[in-house]
Amino acid sequence: MKPAVLFASLAVLVLLAGLPFLGSAYALRIGTFACMYAIMSVSWTVIGGFAGYPSFATAAFFGFGAYCGAILINMGWPLPSAIGAAGALAFAGAFLFGTVLLRLRGHYFAIGSLAVAEVLRELTNSATDLTGGGMGLNIPLSVTGSNSVIADASFFFWVMWALLVVTFLVVAAIQRSKLGFGLICIKQNESAADMIGVNATLYKSTAFAFSGVFVAMAGVIYAGWVHYIEPPDVYDILFAVKPIVMALLGGLGSPAGALLGAFVFLGIEEVVWRNYLEIHSGVLGFMVVVLLLFLPNGLLSIGKRLRRLGARNG
Fold it and tell me: CA 218, CA 221: separation in Å to the nearest integer?
């Protein structure tokens, strides 16, 4: 990632941090969802953008983190400890599971990763004593000690925003690291990467783990924020699809593109939802498809196109 792009991304995150000062519950809600979407999109970039594996496991990570955190909070764990524990379990589980699942390639891997969320959903529905099953789970979490809606909303915004900053910086560091170089080699030609000494299984499993750890942490924050979760909510198939769309919309393989794509996608989604409530899914899908058709390399490619156009005219 170029220094200018990194600086611009951090500037956007700083501007996003100004939302709590507006004193609006709606602005805080949108800001918190923007951070959550961006965490999903930027995290997915590690396995999908760098390594080129089309993972649909984001919903599984998010749901696992939400339920893991909710159970721990109900057992008396403080929120930070619940976030850390869910993240550690998600990282370890994704790494171990990835050593098996990532032996699949292409659409076989995509289908396998998509099935993970469905398996976890069924396990959650079955473990009624622990998860509440289909009835869902209440999270009576009080973090501010006040009855102020704005205070609670501000708290969860700041926590989600801080997690987004950490996610973005870690993924940007991965891109510039030996791990990132190895993942890019795997994306270009996995067989050739093995020949030059890249441990493809280790690299892919690590990438899969990094694509899940921050999403699981976001799931814990979401559970504490909404105070109630149920399997159809946190294992929603859209959580598996949206990160991919957002990364493609911004620019595949770029943390900055994933960040931009998440914000733009949420903006489009909110406008469409407010104006086309009954058919908002269809309208949203149509608009995203049109954008991807006319910008196959994402929104970040607009700058390159303008520079090329300027060079031609000059």
Answer: 5
The residues facing 228 across adjacent strands are: 138
What sign has the CA pseudo-torsion 147, 150, 153, 154? Answer: negative
Helix 200-226 × helix 149-175 angle, to 10°:
170
Q: Which amino acid is at 169?
A: L
For 127, phi then psi, to 5°, come to -85, 65
The pTM assigned to this predicted structure is 0.92
Q: CB of 234 within 8 A of CB of 62?
A: yes
What's the pLDDT tens digit per position in 177-223?
999 999 999 999 888 888 888 899 999 999 999 999 999 999 999 99
pLDDT in tens, 252-285: 889 999 999 999 989 988 888 777 767 767 776 7
Q: Write 112-116 long-range contacts (CB < 8 A, 24+).
A: 113/54, 113/55, 113/56, 113/57, 113/60, 114/56, 114/57, 114/237, 114/240, 116/57, 116/60
Token output for 247: 């990364």
